[in-house]
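[User] Could I get a sequence and structure tokens?

[Assistant]
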Amino acid sequence: MVSDVQRDFLLEILVDYALLNDIIAAPFVKLCLHKIGIKQSLIIEQRYRDGFGWQGKLQAKDFTNLILYFLRDVGGHYSGILENDKKKLELTSICCPFKQIIVKYPALCQIISSIIGSIAARNFDYCKVSVSSSCTGMSQACVMIVHLEENEEAEQAEGTIFTDEPFAYLLTTNDIKQARQNITNEDHCVVNGLEELKTEYREMDNEYNQLRNEIFSDLKLGVIFVDATNQITYINSTAQEALPGDGHWDSAMGQKLKVILADTVQNGKRYIQHIIQLGCADAAQYYSINASPLLSKDGRINGAVGVLQEVTEFKLGQDELLQLEKFSLVAELAAGTAHEIRNPMTTLRGFLQLLSQEFSPEMKGHEYCSLMINEIDRANYIIKEFLLLTKPAAPSLKKVNVHIILEEIFLLIESKSLLENVKLRKRYAEQLPLVQADPAQIKQVFLNIATNAIQAMPIGGQLTISTMARDCKAIIQFTDTGCGMDEKQLTRIFHPFYTSKESGTGLGLTISFRIIESHGGRIYVESSLGKGTTFTIEIPAFDARNG
């Protein structure tokens, strides 16, 4: 993965190199790269001084560490040895920061030697840099010698002497005149060299972009860069798949990401693992978004970068785990209290039955006793639901025809639907596979959902029960035209004790969820507020080979 330091270094070098190539012809390349190296050395030295808290002139050891940290951070692999009582630094590289580009453009070595020589010149009285071998030739490693003291060995070595001169990085007319003096009869090469360098720059830019794309593609993360106007400047292939369309902002995901990046660009807000949901219910997709502002050297926001990753499986697994924890909590509560409550309730009911016989039917005492007995029966029903939730009966599995159970459900809800002015509709598949299920438990689930659907249409409507076969499963859907549910209700619909009915216990759908789960199936819901709700149940088809 490309580090921030390496990326910034490479981009700054490429920009400066391109600008100077547009101004000056090929014969001046070495001079230009030397100036770029001096300029970059000021930025690099200050960055590491701030990072390590170094003050004053650097000692040989700190200078060596700075150079090695820098070369490592920009992607190189170097080792450094101080010799001759810390008067000479020998740097050996087996991996250049410019990678394979250095083979095609060996002049780039000038930048590294100029950076090292300029930093040394500002911290030592003498500095001479010589390259004894280069990986651009036959050698497998690049060896650079930095002499930090003027002595006989330094004088005999071929190389460049660096001095600490203010504004040495500026390209002056004297520099250009001096360079021209070294050129004979090559004026015509200037124009040709400029065009060649432009072509080489474009090739190098393409190679860099290709390398960047390969790196970001290997991450399997969507990466997108925007400028200060929130216009996309770079988007990798993974992000393109998540943001389809020519403009990339047109999709639902694109619109949400655009708002996040706009907030980051305008307000500098950072987003860390921000979850975005696309779609609802069973078709929902979840993405984790990280967004950070891009800052210029003066601290101003000049863009933003967003990284997105699909986390649907993780999010669904997290939700299932949370649901199991809730079931476990309810089970613990029910198991610990239900039996203790049921015994005194039975005693109370018995005495109330005896007490009611002491009153004649028309007396208030008889009415009160009957009311209390009914309430005790209701409490016992809730306790029974508790116990069913905490320890559901093991299903007695048989080969079951779902259509037969649905016909029984139609008979049970027909009278209720007539009273509520609800029309019943059937849409059965011509061929529906048998399922392996407990008929009583599946009937309980169907009846519970159908009853809830009718109750959701107090002023009438239509309940459609449909079946279909898909992926070796029997699919059953209950669709009503009732009041529907909002997103908040949908997220809590299967939670224990959650109900919108005055007389409900909030356990019916929770128990239904557990029953379908114990059959190896799934149950989920889709709803639009004011339009209606669809409950979908999936039950694996019966496999005759394993029956």
Remarks:
- The CA atoms of residues 19 and 423 lie 77 Å apart.
- The chain is about 50% helix and 20% strand.
